Amino acid sequence: MSNRVAIIGVGLSKFGELWEQSIVDITLEAAMVAIFDSGVRGADIEAVCIGNMSAGRFTGQEHLGALAVDAGGLGGVPAYSVEAACASGGAAVRQAYMAIRSGEHDVMMVLGTEKMSDVNQTEAMNTISVASDWEWEGMFGATFPALYAFIARRHMKEYGTTEEQLSLPTVKNHANAAHNPYAQFQRPVPLKVVMGSGMLADPIRVLHSSPVTDGAAGLIMCSEEKAKEYTDTPVYIESSTQASDTLALHDRRDICTMDAVVKSSKEALEKAKVEIKDIDVFELHDSFTIGEITLTEDVGIAKKGEGGQTLSDGLTEIGGKFPVNTSGGLKARGHPIGATGVAQIVELALQLREQGGGRQVDGAERGLAVNIGGTGATSIVHILGR
Amino acid sequence: MAQHGVAQIWRRIRAIYNIEGNTCKTCDTYYFPPRPVCPTCRRKGVLEDHKFKGLGKIHTFAVVRQAPDDFKRQIPYVIAQVELDEGARVTAQIVNIDPEEVEIGMRVRACFRKITQAGTAGVIVYGYKFEPVLKVTGHSYP
Amino acid sequence: MVGIVGYGVYVPRYRIKTEEIAAVWGEDGPKLAKGLGVFEKSVPGPDEDVATISVEAARNAIKQGDIDPTDIGAVYVGSESHPYAVKPTGTIVAESIGCTHDITCADFEFACKAGTAAVQTCMGLVDSKMIKIGLAIGSDTAQGRPGDALEYSAAAGGAAFLIGKKKPVATIEETVSFTTDTPDFWRREGEDFPSHGARFTGEPAYFRHVGAGAKSLLKKTKTTVEDYDYFVFHMPNGKFPIAMGRQLGVPPEKLEDSLIVRQIGNTYSGSAMMGLARILDIADPDSKIFMVAYGSGAGSDAFSIKVEEEIESRRGEVPTMDDYIARKTYVSYAVYAKYRRKIVALG
């Protein structure tokens, strides 16, 4: 039994407001692309695991595992969905990682999907709010942007983070997404426009927030031994870790630090036997720009409180020492909730396979993804190598 | 089955009307909302009901300008984390103040307001919000 | 003797000026305000209703009276704008002020005198020793149809009175009522706004009933206007109580202090009770207060009240009527329309 699990195929659907496509259409699209990319046949797939947060509320459909194998004609293989709010995709990757490492399955398909545009704004906001502590936060009027505004305002107060720094991830991530043909927004956006965009929940503006996105992502994963049968360019999951924190943001030790991220990323680096400086490319969960700032600190790229300055210094741009969100991140690639954690792994795999096109990080050998659920109650970290 | 939300609200009425949480006698920590288990002491924890005084200060806040339909009439409204004097933090709206006057560290006291409702025909949820302490609230400025 | 063992009031923070409403309808604001004797009125916030106002007033009353809420045996809330047509406001109040579950509770409705009817009920229960303390609340978030004369006065506020025997801040020496079937003002089931008989609400309704109640109380107590230091009449506007006082021969200075209607409008079930609270805030011990509440439909409840020594030790901790009157933020008619559910599209 090997320690590493290989990723031999990756696929994405289009990301955006996909009015003509249903949740089945986009999920199948990502699955097919991943299967063709990997070279496996449908019959080789032993199990399917789907990351999804809330198809039941967004589309009225649950039981996505059976739905996917049925739609894809994969026959009678076991299939199930996993839910960890915005970290559902990462959780699906990790489930497959553990199933393959345990020896139970050799070849698995991992999917992440969310169809968000079929409901109105109120339903979308209420559905996203159940990722926080609905009974004690959402019901009292704390929208999701408001919860991140809590973090942002405290970060500004404690560390002097500026409104400009709060806007820089958007500028950077849009610039990156301009080179990503799958991204929802493939165009740069000037700082002035970000800083002048409408307020959602002061100090969080519309362009500090990830959009409502339909999209799906897929991976074909298998054991290290098996990988060689299918491809000459496998990438490997070198470590997979997960940690939890209080569901409600108000119960955290310090709202500016996501302890679950600190713990899981530290463990991921230890398990992969690498240090932060050994990582060439990052996908950090920027559902709101303040999230990218605090995650930059919590994974160890920047010291606590210096995440904003790190952005100002250009350290996390492509070409910088620690490129973050080369895909465009959740902000510009889009954030179909259950798909995001899988799409992050797709991006790292493309980077390690040197298929990043205009956004390629030269010589990227190792990547790290942080996928968080809620306001940091779940953190799932994967380190990929080649 | 109960009408949507009714039982879910009803079983929390004591907590949300009067800020009733609990305290662990083993580690002397106060919890709101009440916890089923002390997360620090677990089986060694001894939980007792505790009615919070309803006084605290603003830890952080946001001014909500886009909200679901139930909150549209109140936009823009202030939502905050209030650090209660006993130690727990609670998420609640701040009322009786203009949004631009709210500050981190401001002293506030609990008041009683309508939180939300299940449409015009459904059950009304009442509970705590917070307002600045003033003479009118029965407090002097700190 | 039965008395008031604690009291408290609550007025929402928002106000709209009579002139602001008048401008919407092309009326002469200053003239209208002067004629009505209402210069501004209170407006409840979008998250305030009779339940929240009642709770705030009741919590103030408990603090002012320094009483143990588990001694309360009855909770009655009088209002014409209960948030539920069916489901009592009183249960919400009782649960949120720390009463036991072994209480009796009901909502009262008698237009603007539902609160004083609750006071009388509590007096009976206390006097018959069925309960130790009763909580009687008069509270409203009154609505006037847009453009109707009532829109200038219909306001929000409430007063809570704890009725008991132990260490009262004021004793209620006597109470009488006068009741007839007089349809001067009503709201049919399912209607958003009340209807009224316009000028019919004056002579055959307000003046007849308040006058009869007042005279009946004077007769029963064998007292005259001279025996009282303060007078409180229900305040549908600033004009009626003054005219009533004039009819009864009350010197204007004995009425003046109760006229809260000028700054906060007509708080319906809260109106006379809040006027009384204003007097209790300022009166010296041994002062005598003559109050007549009026409810359309129609009836009056008259009370003879004596202020006790105890009142002085309770002052200072709890916000007064004047504190609430002074705490205010003006809103435009547009914001008022948003808060008062007059924008239909918002539901």
Write the layout of secondary structure elements.
The complex is a heterotrimer of chains A (386), B (142) and C (347).
Chain A: E1 5-12, H1 23-38, E2 47-51, H2 55-58, H3 64-72, E3 79-82, H4 88-101, E4 107-114, H5 121-129, H6 144-159, H7 163-177, H8 191-195, E5 199-202, E6 204-205, E7 215-223, H9 224-230, E8 235-244, H10 259-272, E9 281-284, H11 289-298, H12 307-312, H13 329-332, H14 337-352, E10 366-373, E11 378-385
Parallel strand pairs in A: 2-3, 2-4, 9-10
Antiparallel strand pairs in A: 1-7, 1-8, 4-7, 5-6, 8-11, 10-11
Chain B: H1 6-10, H2 13-18, E1 20-24, E2 29-31, E3 47-51, E4 55-64, E5 77-84, E6 89-94, E7 107-117, E8 124-132
Antiparallel strand pairs in B: 1-2, 1-3, 4-5, 4-7, 5-6, 7-8
Chain C: E1 3-10, E2 14-17, H1 18-24, H2 29-36, E3 40-43, H3 50-65, E4 72-78, H4 89-96, E5 104-108, H5 114-127, E6 133-141, E7 156-164, E8 170-182, E9 185-186, E10 195-196, H6 202-221, E11 230-233, H7 239-248, H8 252-256, H9 261-264, H10 271-282, E12 288-295, E13 297-307, H11 311-314, H12 321-326, E14 329-330, H13 333-339
Parallel strand pairs in C: 2-14, 4-5, 4-6, 11-12
Antiparallel strand pairs in C: 1-7, 1-8, 2-3, 6-7, 8-13, 9-10, 12-13
Helix pairs in contact in C: 1-2, 3-4, 6-7
Description:
The complex is a heterotrimer of chains A (386), B (142) and C (347). Chain A has 386 residues and is of the alpha/beta class. Chain A has 2 domains: 5-120 and 213-235, Thiolase/Chalcone synthase (Peroxisomal Thiolase, Chain A, domain 1); 145-207 and 236-385, Peroxisomal Thiolase, Chain A, domain 1, CATH 3.40.47.10. Chain A has helices spanning 23-38, 55-58, 64-72, 88-101, 121-129, 144-159, 163-177, 191-195, 224-230, 259-272, 289-298, 307-312, 329-332, 337-352, and strands spanning 5-12, 47-51, 79-82, 107-114, 199-202, 204-205, 215-223, 235-244, 281-284, 366-373, 378-385. Chain A is globular, with a radius of gyration of 19 Å. The mean pLDDT of chain A is 97. Chain B has a domain at 6-19 and 53-137: OB fold (Dihydrolipoamide Acetyltransferase, E2P) (Beta Barrel), CATH 2.40.50. In chain B, 8% of the residues lie in helices and 40% in strands. In chain B, a hairpin with a 4-residue loop joins strand 1 and strand 2 (29-31). Chain C has 13 helices and 14 strands. Chain C has helices spanning 18-24, 29-36, 50-65, 89-96, 114-127, 202-221, 239-248, 252-256, 261-264, 271-282, 311-314, 321-326, 333-339; strands at residues 3-10, 14-17, 40-43, 72-78, 104-108, 133-141, 156-164, 170-182, 185-186, 195-196, 230-233, 288-295, 297-307, 329-330. With 347 residues, chain C is of the alpha/beta class. Chain C is globular. The chains are: A alpha/beta (386), B mainly beta (142), C alpha/beta (347). Chains in contact: A-B, B-C. The B-C interface holds B 13-14, 17-18, 51, 69, 72-74, 93, 95-96, 98, 111-115, 119-120, 124, 126, 129, 134-138 and C 13, 45-49, 51-52, 55-56, 59-60, 63, 83-84, 92, 95-96, 98, 317-319, 323-324, 326-327, 329, 338-339, 341, 346-347. Strand 5 (199-202) of chain A pairs antiparallel with strand 4 of chain B, so a sheet runs across the interface.
